[in-house]
Amino acid sequence: MRIVVALGGNALLKRGQPMTAEVQRENVQVAARALAPIALDHELVISHGNGPQVGLLALQADAFTEVEPYPLDVLGAQTEGMIGYMIEQELGNLMPYEQPFATILTMVEVDPRDPAFDNPTKPIGPVYEKEEATQLAEQRGWTIAKDGKKWRRVVPSPKPQHIFEIRPIRWLIEHGVIVICTGGGGIPTMYKPGRILQGAEVVIDKDLASELLARELEADMIIMATDVDGVYAKWGEPDAELLHKVTLQELASYNFAVGSMGPKVEAACNFVEETGGRAAIGSLADLEMIVAGKAGTIISP
Predict the structure, then answer these.
(1) Residues 174-185: pLDDT tens digits?
(2) 255 is catalytic
(3) Of 50, 51, 264, 270, catalytic
(4) What is the spatial distance between Cα 21 and Cα 29, in angstroms, rounded to a whole number?
(5) What whole-number distance in Å separates Cα of residue 16 and Cα of residue 179?
(6) What is the CATH number of the domain that holds 247?
(7) Per-residue pLDDT, 258
């Protein structure tokens, strides 16, 4: 099968961990051990989140006042290279020597008329106490929002429209390459008048971009790997129930938070509806069982 695995941010940096290269590499090693069995038996394409990383780079850029801070599209490109490098190396250490890898800097088009530009919702960077977050927002012109018990910077997150590098990604897969691409939702780009392509000061949702990737690659399955074992009905309540095998119609009867499972469920349902393939949401540790249909939330037409 051709499988797209979208690694959640927890695959690289768990909540509360220090944002060091060493910690991120250790987490990538865990992800690589889960991915390797899948890569041996299937065509594998990997995407990943980058919220903490792009936020950290933005903070570092703010600290150097001699030049203007780099925009989010440039920081997104930097994180794609950094994270792709780590995944290539750690997964390569577990695979046969002759297995080829490629990390593709992936530009993803957004519509400048998308209403998301006027409604920042995508959290990036570290979490703060409310007082510190408010102070930083005043100093740097940020929009902030509550994230659990803490606060984070939020930026616009328009819907992905087109993946510019889809043809070379497809060519590489057809030649047996494990491809890492569309990291962090891709490098956000948009056309200005005159058909001039430029970057956008946004972060695209990784799950929605991964779904677009899977659809355009005609993948058989997309898996959104996260830090929970699946989608729950009545999440956070005493009678919460894991939804294991569900249909589109069944999922439509539930409401999921925009800041947590909402984008994952939306992406999974869209893939199933558009392609008739399988979509799954579940724990990275259960990846093999998810592919076998024995773990996670499996969504079918």
Answers:
(1) 999 999 999 999
(2) no
(3) 264
(4) 12
(5) 29
(6) 3.40.1160.10
(7) 63
Is the same domain home to 229 and 262?
yes
Catalytic residue among 8, 10, 185, 277: 10
Distance of CA 106 to the CA centre of its chain: 13
**Count of domains forming the chain:** 2
- Report which of 277, 260, 261, 259 is spatially closest to residue 213, judged by C-alpha positions: 277
Residue 270 annotated among the catalytic residues of the structure: no
Residue 169 sits in the same domain as residue 242:
no
Are residues 259 and 289 both part of a single domain?
A: yes
Q: Active-site residue 10, yes or no?
A: yes
- For the stretch 105-147, pLDDT in tens is 999 999 999 999 999 988 887 788 999 999 989 988 889 998 8
Among 144, 173, 204, give the residue marking a domain's end: 204
| Whether residue 97 sits in one domain with residue 23 | yes
From the candidates 8, 125, 206, 230, give the one annotated as an active-site residue.
206
Residue 195 lies in a domain: yes
Predicted model pTM: 0.90
Q: Is 9 a catalytic residue?
A: yes
Q: Which of 204, 228, 261 is the last residue of a domain?
A: 204
Domain of 263, in residue numbers? 220-301
Of 49, 122, 125, 277, which one is the catalytic site residue? 122
Same domain membership, residue 100 and residue 20: yes
